[in-house]
Design goal:
Rossmann fold, 16 strands, quinone reductase (NADPH) activity, 2 domains, single chain, 7-stranded mixed β-sheet
Length: 325
């Protein structure tokens, strides 16, 4: 028997419940993993509260984890064997458990020089940041980009990666006490999006041109700043709706021939080759210290409900993990 955290219905953190469940042996191309560290991210919260739809209930939440291979199915052909350290972040939800059977196509090996905690903290967010700065909008040297939530876990990685690509990063935060965190993670400039003169600040920084792209996980609260700070042909990139949906109209887009896109990791990292190559790139960035992972808080497995309360109350930010063993 293993411990699993599931939900029977969507709602607040209190819908999370711990249960005991049998774990099956892996079949065919499946692998049994014993989790060591689980990544904590906002997708977990949005699945729990119903913003992001789950196929079936009851359901186990959790998007990303790192662990040890215990058993492999008789058709596993990706070079995986018992004892290997592996991670995943594009499988269907189900990481909130001690052990899990999962298809080999979602897994990639973790290098010896990368600790489990670092890998679990960065996998999902690193994969997301990779496609945001390379595909959703390809940052070129000198390009101005606005990153909302620059102090958050994913925001920190986007800012570092944008800096690595020699872009000029304007970090957007909602409290002045987050300025140092944003500057520490690659922002050249920092603005508080709650300030009335935030748009004027951005236009002054860009000498009246505006930014080439806005990366926005917030939505409704940052809509005005986002669209008024974009340059002609600028790109608005939504990867979250923390404060609610940002309504967009064609008349708004046509005002400066703007583009708007919503993104999903499942589309950008849908094939195994892309997944593995991106993982290798992330691990190489870590090895060369071009990507610095600063873990903010480590929760125990029996503290997941508290972790969800902390996220919703904005009592925690940055990169956070759940320790299983």
């Amino acid at each position: 028997m293993i411990k699993v955290i599931q939900i029977r219905k969507t709602g607040g953190p209190d819908v999370l419940e711990y249960i005991n469940r049998d774990v099956c042996n892996p079949q065919d191309e499946e692998v049994l993993i014993r989790h060591t560290v689980i990544g904590l991210n906002r997708y977990d919260v949005e699945h729990r509260n119903g913003i992001r739809k789950l196929k079936n209930l009851p359901a186990v939440l959790g998007m990303e984890a790192v662990g040890i291979v215990e058993k492999v199915g008789n058709k596993v052909n990706e070079g995986l064997k018992a004892g290997d350290r592996v991670g995943y972040c594009t499988a269907p939800p189900g990481a909130y458990c001690e052990k899990r059977v999962i298809h080999q196509k979602y897994l990639f090996k973790i290098p010896d020089n990368v600790q489990d905690e670092i890998a679990a903290a960065v996998l999902f967010k690193g994969m997301t940041a990779h496609y945001l700065v390379n595909h959703s909008y390809k940052i070129k040297p000198g390009a101005f980009v606005l990153v909302h939530g620059a102090n958050g876990g994913l925001g920190q990685i986007i800012c570092q990666w944008a800096q690595e690509k020699k872009g000029t990063v304007i970090g957007s935060i909602n409290s002045d006490n987050q300025i140092n965190t944003a500057l520490q993670n690659g922002c050249t400039h920092v603005i508080n999006y709650n300030n009335n003169d935030a748009i004027s600040e951005i236009m002054e920084i860009t000498k009246g041109k505006g930014v080439g792209a806005v990366y926005d996980p917030i939505g409704y609260d940052t809509k005005k700043i986002s669209f008024e700070s974009l340059c002609i042909f600028g790109v608005y990139i939504s990867y979250g709706q923390i404060s609610g949906i940002a309504p967009i109209s064609f008349s708004l887009l046509s005002s400066r021939s703007l583009f708007a896109t919503g993104t999903s990791i499942y589309h950008y990292k849908r094939d195994r080759l892309t997944l593995v190559l991106t993982a290798m790139e992330i691990f190489e960035m870590l090895r060369k210290k071009r990507l610095i992972v600063r873990i903010n808080k480590k929760y125990k497995f029996d503290e997941i409900i508290q972790a969800h309360h902390d996220i919703e109350n904005r009592a925690v930010s940055g990169l956070n993990i759940i320790k299983v063993s």
